[in-house]
Design goal:
Blueprint (H helix, E strand, L loop, with lengths): L2 H28 L10 H11 L6 H30 L5 H10 L2 H11 L11 H13 L3 H9 L11 H6 L5 H21 L4 H5 L4 H16 L3 E6 L2 E6 L23
Antiparallel strand pairs: 1-2
């Protein structure tokens, strides 16, 4: 076989392979697997022009025509996408980024002012609004008179709660004292056996109401110095006091602990 025929056969095989690849890419674009602009149509046409002189058989020319038909379909899809994007005022992000990079700071400021449409309300001072404002302030009592009037307002003074009321609320009485004693004994036993009592492990129970009740009782033990509450970053622990005073400290501070419901 002559060198010329070898070159021709090699170009023939390479041409058929490239055209089939172009057809496969076009089919994928038609099936919406790729963006229509994924394929460079101009490069595809140049490939057809390059290998067209080598075609001799009917099958070769059919492949060439089929490839050209698929390329035209991609062009149609590109045109459709451009029309849609223009109707939606779409702009390619990379194109905008390159354009912004080339713009000066002055031009960027001008574009911002031209495109800036803040939502605002414009109000204008008129003679009538000034009259209304003056009348309002003239009719308003001085601040001292207004505070004096608030001081003389009748209000119901707080009164001490009766023993029956406290018992009804569950915060006083023999049963409440027994609950505190049992909980304190339980806490001391846990601390004696393990040397550490985690706050959440100690109060948490399967029933949410029981968890809240134990937290409520623990707050009394802490307030009246039977138990110390220690805060270590995100961890809370309880330590029973060796010699509790049984009295609330005057300088004690409130430390609220939210109790979320478990899932």
């Amino acid at each position: 076989m002559s060198e010329k025929n070898q070159v021709k056969r090699g170009s023939y095989a390479s041409g058929r392979r490239e055209l089939k690849e172009i057809v496969e890419t076009c089919e994928a674009i038609s099936e919406r697997k790729f963006n229509p602009f994924f394929l460079d149509v101009r490069l595809g046409v140049e490939t057809l022009r390059q290998y067209f002189p080598f075609w001799e058989t009917f099958a070769d020319h059919c492949l060439d025509a089929h490839t050209l038909n698929r390329l035209s379909e991609v062009v149609r899809l590109q045109n459709t996408q451009l029309k849609f994007q223009s109707s939606m005022l779409y702009a390619d992000p990379e194109f905008i980024a390159r354009k912004i990079d080339r713009m000066s700071e002055k031009r960027l400021a001008e574009v911002l002012l031209q495109s800036w449409h803040p939502l605002s309300e414009m109000e204008q001072l008129t003679e009538q609004t000034l009259v209304n404002a003056i009348n309002y302030w003239n009719a308003l009592l001085p601040i001292a008179a207004r505070w004096k009037r608030r001081e003389h307002m009748d209000s119901k003074q707080p009164s001490p709660a009766s023993n029956d009321t406290l018992i009804g609320l569950g915060i006083r009485g023999e049963d409440f004292d027994q609950q505190l004693t049992r909980l304190l004994d339980e806490l001391r036993d846990v601390y004696k056996s393990s040397g550490y009592v985690g706050y959440w492990n100690f109060i948490r129970r399967p029933e949410y109401q029981e968890t809240v009740n134990r937290a409520y009782l623990v707050s009394f033990l802490v307030t009246y110095d039977y138990v110390k509450l220690h805060v270590h970053e995100d961890e809370l622990s309880l330590v029973p006091t060796d010699q509790p005073s049984g009295k609330a400290k005057p300088s004690a501070t409130s430390f609220p602990i939210p109790i979320p419901r478990s899932d």
